[in-house]
Structures are given as structure tokens and as C-alpha cells.
């Protein structure tokens, strides 16, 4: 270009602007690394002590008592800051320690700050303390693959998302051989303690390792992590000890902001329904938080479907003097029809677009699907137990799997005692779309759980929705409302009298703002018939162009865009809430270690309240465990927390569901939560579900 200086490539690459643009460390990253999370007041003391309390009660599972005798009597411990410690206590607290830490399971925003908090606390008490990070999850413990964590490494990852520093993995230390190899690793590194950062299964694993390592004097501490928000600890009386696991707030905010962007698109282009599936394999906490954050038009909460009763079906059965057991519990078909109702209502108000949010694990709350999953889980587990080959290796194709199920159905005809898979199951299963069959038969995860993220839940539901909308369209019950002002203006511009044509075209002409075409008008042919019947056009007369144009505007075209929100949110850089939460979890973990605890979960009580009220505690893991079926066998696990349908957050959500559907005049109620901001003021200090539920929390 004329007038521009000719620069060599070396001159370009050496230019300060170019260097600033291509530098890996952005301004935001530098701000994040420099952020120093506030610490709970107790950690301003040079030392801490643990105070046991009998304020909380747990029902102990007999199997947990039998298998975890060394830690089953643990109680809740509160971290306190004494005015002073005796010489012996100080020496014990500050003695030189080697500590290991491992990430287990999927990433969750804030994990690096657990390491940072643990590192800062350990080095602050004794600079000779050493911290080792096991690589790629629990396999790193088994195989003694680790690195020593240095201050330079910690500073590089402070306040950043991911588990990049030491990576993560889904392996479990669940066999005698793995346990012995893990103990050998800890002895080789002369570890005093091991910190396991993970979800419910990982903390279960921490309890068993704590029991196994008692004799070696190695402490094991768990840290609750999962974006699903399903690690929530209450005692038998409902007193909250851990309101939410770390990473939940960040993931929900990331998802909500993305959903808000889709709401902007939908209300601009006005022709798409964006169906957003959000992570949450068992619980719908993320879907609920996203609903409160972004106000999508429809949000399905799986837990709200459990106690559903189809009153119409019950009344019909009552008239026929019978009991219809299928009326109890939500079916896929009925859920799809509830969604259709919202779509039809919005269309009547001229809104043929919208946002629908569904949780990843919603199918687990659908009776018919849950029965299939339970039966197929048992069939797969039974096959794996009794054959030398894995079920999915033995039957790599869908056809092979279906043939095996067919043989089981035949067996049920010959053997009345065999009820696991019968001909009725086979008939119902064969009615499902092929991709849905394949999803239900997909390989289970490492814990034996059905992988809901691998099945296109949204496609299953929207397929049923599309089918029913087509039926409603044929019946003339699904139409797009036409603004009366637009209709009058368009006809007047074409030289036609709207008062003559309006009553012939619309069922509610002159009564409402949005006009609905008569149910009988379902095609150009029936449109002509109505106009001829009203004497507005002759048999040979051409249909007025403006009338044809308006008719076409009343015909809905249901277009869907599908989105899945999961991996992007769990890898997001954490909110200030999660940065602060996890840093204090790291400090808590060290306090538990320095005071001799083992088999405890580091937690922060009062997360639902202002930061000044946060209280670091240790929660005994063993009393939280109960027997649950995994891989076809009963196993001790920590129970996942589901959405409480009676909570304040759910009551607020349900009270506003009609308003957010916005199936009437006026604008949609979409909320813009905004991106996760790390600089500036105004970032919310905790999840909205926690803020709402705090309203009903008892005063301290």
C-alpha cells in the first residue's frame, strides 16, 4: 500500500506491539496470577488446632463400621486459632513433613488453588516441608510417578483453571495390589500425608486408603470436587456442613453466559429453538443454577419429575374402574408434550423461538428409561462376571448386542424364573430409535455408571417433540400468532379491508393482540375454502398476495439447534468465589494434616453466607458412606446429593417458570449474567442457589 514502510519479517516480529499480541500471558492472566485470595480469619493465626464437636449426627452403615473400624468413630472437627500453643504442640505442628497430592476424576475450576493453599500453608509453617504432586491421577500414586511442587510452579498456576499442573485421571486404587503399590510409593517418598482431590468416588477411595494406611502412620485427607454440585454434606438433622463442591459456581456461570448469548441470537433471528444440555449425570444442580442465572424459557429439573402424577390418566382409569400404574411417574412421551405446550403457547404469542435447558442426566428420572438402564447395567455386569470377554468387546456392533438381548428374551419364554429381560422389554426396546438404543447400550464408565453425556438426550426429546408438534399442526392447534396491528397495516397497504378479512381468517379477531388462524386453516386449500365461504373471493379468483403472505407467517417451522455444555465449563478459569473457596480448602487440608487428622474431608461450612462467616472444618468420610449398587454389586459409596424440590431456590424457580416462558405479550425475560470477570467490581460472591437457600438457613 502506498505510503507504508517496507518492514522485514525480523523487524515485524521484534516490534513491541507484535510481542504484546503474541505473548502467552495476557493482561487477564497476569491479573489472575497476582490475585491473593482472602483467607478465613482463623488462618491469620500462626498455628491452628482442631476442636471436635458432637453437634452433628450421622447414621452409620453397619458395612462401613465393619470395613472402616479405624476411622468410623471420627467426628466433625472445627479448625480453631488458639491464642498460643505449648512448646511441644508448636514443635509437633511445625515439624518437617512430606505431603503428596493427587487429582482424581474430571477437572473442576479451582484445583490449582487447592495446591497453592496447601503449599503456602506448609511452607509458611516450615520451609523444609515438601509437597509432591502425583501425575495423571491415582495411577501416579500406584506407579510412583510424581514431581516435587515448587513455588515457581505454584505461582505459574495460581487462580487458573484446569488440572494442568499435575494432570488428572479416572483410575481407582481399588484392589489389594494397587493398595500395596500405593503404600510402597508413600513409604519410598517418606510421605506423612496424602491429599486426594476428587468427587464422591474419590473421597470414598480416600476413606479406604486412610484405613489401609493407619498402620503406616500415613494420613489421608479428601477434598470435595465436582462441577455437578452433587457433593453436599448434611447430617441426619439436615444441618449443612458442605453446601457445594468446588468448581460448580464457575461451570454454572460459564454455561449461563453461553446460554445468554444464545438467547440474544434466538430473539434476534427469531427462528430457532436452542436446546442446551448441561452437565449433571445424576443431579440437576447445574440446570437449576443456569435457569436462575439466565432465565431460559423452559428448564427441565430431573428431580421435579420423580413424583409426577398424570391426573388425566388417573381420572380416565377411575371412570373405567381400574388402576393405571403408568400414571405415576414421568414418561418420555409426557415430558415431550409438556415441552410442546410451552412451544405452542409461545408460538401463539408470535414467538417461534426460544431457549430450552435440560440436565444431562434427565433420563435417569424417566421411569421407562430408568428401568432399561437398571436392567442393561445388570445384564452387562453379569456378562462380564461370567465370561472371559468384556460385553462391549464381545459385541462391538449394535446388531450383535441386540441379538444377545433377543436370546435373553427367548430364554424368558422357556424359563419362567428368568425375568431380567423378557419379550415385553424387547418389544419396547425395539420401538426406540436406533441411536437411542445404541446410547443405552454404550460402554459404562470406570465406576460402572451409565454415561449420560454419551447419549443425545436432547435429540431423543426433540424427536418426540417434533412428532407431536406435527400432529398439532395437522389439527390446526400449533400456529404462530400474527400481531393485529401488522395485519391491519398490511391489508390497508394492499387496499383490502382488515375488518372484512379478519373474522374469516382468525379465531380471535378483535379480542387479542396476537391473532390465531382458525383451526380449520391448515393449508392453502383450506385457506381458500374459508375465504370463499365468507364470500371474500370467488372460485376462480386468485388468492390475494398479502393474504397468502400472512397465512404463511402463521405456519410454524420448528427448527432446533442443539448444544452441550460440559467440558468447556469444567476447564474454565475459576470465579473469585471458587478461587477463594479452593485456596481455603488447601489451607484447611494442611491444618487437618498438621493436627494429626486422617479419613477426613476438608470443607468450608457456611458457604451460603458472607465470607466472614466461612468456617473451615474436617468432615468424617466414613459415616457418610452407605451401600449402593455399582457394576451389579453392592459397594460402599458417598451418596450423591440431588436437588431438593422443596428448597427455596426451587420454589423461586417454579414461581417464575411461567413468567420466564414469556408466552404472551411483551419481551422475553432473558437475564444477562455476563462473563466471568476477574478484574473490576460487581462479581457475585457465591452461587445464586446458595444465596436463595440461605434465606431459610437457621440463624447461628
Overall description:
- This protein is α/β, with parallel strands linked by helices.
- It folds into four domains: 43-246 and 574-638, Rossmann fold (3-Layer(aba) Sandwich); 249-337 and 350-359 and 559-570 and 641-700, Phosphofructokinase domain (Rossmann fold); 361-455; 480-554, no CATH class.
- Helices cover 43% and strands 13% of the residues.
- The strands form five sheets. The chain has a nine-stranded mixed sheet, sandwiched between helices.
- Helix 6 (111-125) runs antiparallel to helix 8 (151-157), helix 6 packs across helix 26 and helix 17 (398-414) packs antiparallel against helix 18 (423-430).
- It starts with 8 loop residues before the first helix and ends in a 7-residue tail after the last helix.
- State the helical fraction: 40-55%
Radius of gyration: 30 Å
Which descriptor suits the 3D outline? globular
State the name of the first-level CATH class of the largest domain. Answer: Alpha Beta
Report the sheet with the most strands, covering strand number, pairing sense and barrel closure. Answer: 9 strands, mixed
Mean pLDDT: 92
Record the strand order, biggest sheet: 1-2-17-16-7-6-3-4-5
What CATH architecture of the largest domain do you see? 3-Layer(aba) Sandwich
User: What is the fold named in CATH at topology level of the largest domain?
Assistant: Rossmann fold
Count of DSSP H/I helices? 28
- How many distinct folded domains? 4
The residue ranges in which pLDDT falls below 50 over 5 or more consecutive positions are none
Instruction: Name the structural class.
Output: alpha/beta
Q: Beta fraction of the residues?
A: 5-15%
- Give the strand tally: 19
- Distance between termini? 72 Å
